Amino acid sequence: MLRELKQLKGMKRHLKETLFTLHFVNIFKYKSVDFLEKRKWGKRLYYNKERLRFLLTGKVSIPFLSYFVTSRCTLNCTYCNAFMPSYTKDTHLLPVSFEQFKEDMDKLLKSVDKIHVFQFIGGEPFLAKDLSKMIKYAKSKKQIETIYVTTNATIKPSEKLLDSLKGVYVQLSDYRHIKGIKLYYDELKELFNKHKINMCLYEEENDSTFYTLQEIYEKEEDRKTIEDRNIYCLTRRCNHLCDGKLYLCPTQIHMDRNLKLDMYDNVVDIRSCNSNELTQKLIDFYSLPYYKVCRYCHFENVKRGQPRGEQTIIHISQPPEIAGGGAV
Ligand SMILES: C[S@@+](CC[C@H](N)C(=O)[O-])C[C@H]1O[C@@H](n2cnc3c(N)ncnc32)[C@H](O)[C@@H]1O
Ligand code: SF4
Ligand code: SF4
To answer: What's the 229 CA to ligand 3 centre distance in angstroms?
Structure first.
């Protein structure tokens, strides 16, 4: 407890932001999160609960974690915020196997208190042939509160995958207005309704648009500038686990894998340490006063209002071979 009390100061920001992060990723509109976030006492109550959990367990809770199943995709969106068009055959992450997923999750779950929202993401997660097994495994873990899978609706799920999706939320991205791509959006909606699978149709319901991507380059900047960028960047709440490494956001994965930029130790390699070391590394990661990698991100020319899912005509990488994955 004494050690945790000492660590509490560094963890304060992370613990305070947990409720806001849940509110930010709350596309399923949990009423309790909304209710608490809108009230001063609600925020304080939640913060105290998180603080107490940290003192008692000595472990971090991750509000939102995306498991990066593969960087391969069936589409090639120009403004993909996971930078899919930049991946090459040397930098692609091939679909993860169940064995690898299990190893990563067993290791991570030993060192965290809980994961509030856990998302399967990519690339296109339905490309992974072991996805149904991975979902079932994640569902069996009490430390994971809510699970969802985001798909671009280009692949029909098999019976096995449909079965695993019960009790999980499926976020269907809506690219139906893009000409020349084959989508099963409406069929999937019907199928999920029939199988009583929860759906999130955020893009359809909100007619949302894409924003263009930030420019990534090195520039000498003072600490305050980087710190402010990090504080105001909502993407930093979309932590990703990719190839055994915990990243702040998908942009950082792109910086590491494709651009080979210095990560300034702003990554936790979960495969390279034992569970005790990992517990401490995660505390250190979430206690960082600011993240130096954010100095590469330049949002000055980012524009909103791009058509969702617009396809790029310049294929920087070879189009990936489409594996059977979760498809029928
Ligand atoms: C990176 S995709 C990965 C999952 C899957 N391939 C898909 O498109 O649904 C995750 C989500 O990010 C959204 N997204 C991607 N690029 C975006 C951008 N530039 N602006 C806003 N949303 C974006 C997609 O529409 C999708 O809902
Ligand atoms: S479908 Fe588009 S947004 Fe989703 S990962 Fe593929 S390229 Fe990115
Ligand atoms: S690297 Fe930092 S500033 Fe850039 S998107 Fe990620 S969290 Fe935001």
So the answer is: 8
Whether the pLDDT of residue 252 is over 90: the answer is yes
CA distance 36 to 245: 32
Q: Which helix (H) or strand (E) holds 105?
A: helix 98-111
- Say what the pTM is: 0.93
pLDDT, position 321: 42
CATH value of 60-313 in 1.20.120.1200, 3.20.20.70, 2.60.120.1690, 3.40.50.2300:
3.20.20.70
Residue 295 clears pLDDT 90, i.e. is over it: yes
Helix axes of 275-287 and 98-111: crossing angle, nearest 10 degrees = 70
Determine if ligand 1 sits within 6 Å of the CB of residue 291.
no
Instruction: Kindly report the protein residue whose alpha carbon is nearest to atom 27 of ligand 1.
Output: 173
Q: Is the dihedral of CA 123, 104, 92, 97 positive or negative?
A: negative
Nearest ligand, CA 83: 2
Among all ligands shown, which has an atom nearest to the Cα of 84? Answer: 2
Tokens matching residue 221: 């900047």
In whole numbers, what is the pLDDT of the chain averaged over residues?
Answer: 92
Q: For 178-208, how does the pLDDT look when each residue is reduced to its tens digit (9 = 90+)?
A: 999 999 999 999 999 999 999 999 999 999 9
Best of 72, 74, 76, 174 to mutate for ligand 2, by most ligand atoms within 8 A of CB?
76
List ligand 3's pocket residues with C-beta within 6 A: 229-230, 233, 235-236, 248-249, 251-252, 291, 293-294, 297
Q: Can you give the length of the chain in residues?
A: 328
